[in-house]
Amino acid sequence: MAAGLQVFGQPASTDVARVLACLFEKNLEFELVRIDTFKKEHKLPEFIKLRDPTGQVTFKHGDKTIVDSRAICRYLCTQFPEDGNRTIYGTGSLERASIEQWLQAEAQSFDAPSSELVFHLAFAPQLNIPADESRIAENERKLQQMLNVYDEILAKNRYLAGDEFTLADLSHLPNSHYIVNARSPRGKKLFTSKKHVARWYEEISSRPSWKQVVKMQSEHPGAFE
User: Running DSSP on this structure, what letter comes out for residue 131?
Assistant: First the structure.
């Protein structure tokens, strides 16, 4: 049974959203401590004072502190293997190796262009920042290349690492959600124009765990307040 799990950050942050989705998949109880509350009260904990928490996530479990969202998800899955979704990080070495391959692809190749598009298509319009068409086009092209590969894989598999929903899929949700739901339809088209990617995104974004995250984001808009 999990005890003393704390997440410091804003649900609107993609890093925080990734961790929250994992916590919900694992059906773990936790405390969400909004960073802005601490900033207003000038009572930032010592382990957060050493870094800029803006748009990031800090996780504590007892005396353990982790700041990378993907590392936090791996920790939760290995620390609490019998809780909630037991197959989300694989049940054997071969399954886990496949999941890790996709986690690396997400972190190294998907994250950069998708994060740029999240900013330019979802955040910038709400902050009244003029559109940078060249940056948008460049990152659309990069993400398009990635999603072409994904579409080929998803033509054979229900999910990226096989027939089960895993961290490989979950890790893509935060950025994908902002792009698909941006004011501009061009982001959504990246995902809906590909048959298998469209089916995959519809499935993973419909999971109860992710719907809980989206609900929290609507209740705690964070960066948009």
Answer: P
Quote the domain boundaries for residue 160: 93-207
Please report, for residues 57, 69, 72, 144, the alpha-carbon distance to residue 49 in angstroms, rounded to integers and kept in the order given: 13, 18, 19, 38
Whether residue 109 sits in one domain with residue 129:
yes
How many domains is the chain built from?
2
Record the pTM. Answer: 0.89
* Owner of token pair 């994060």: 115
Q: What is the pLDDT of residues 123-167, one digit of tens each?
A: 898 888 898 999 999 999 999 999 999 999 999 999 999 999 999
List the strands of the sheet with 64-66, edge to edge.
31-33, 5-8, 58-61, 64-66
First-to-last alpha carbon distance for the chain, in angstroms, is 35
**Do residues 200 and 150 make contact, with C-beta atoms less than 8 angstroms apart?**
yes
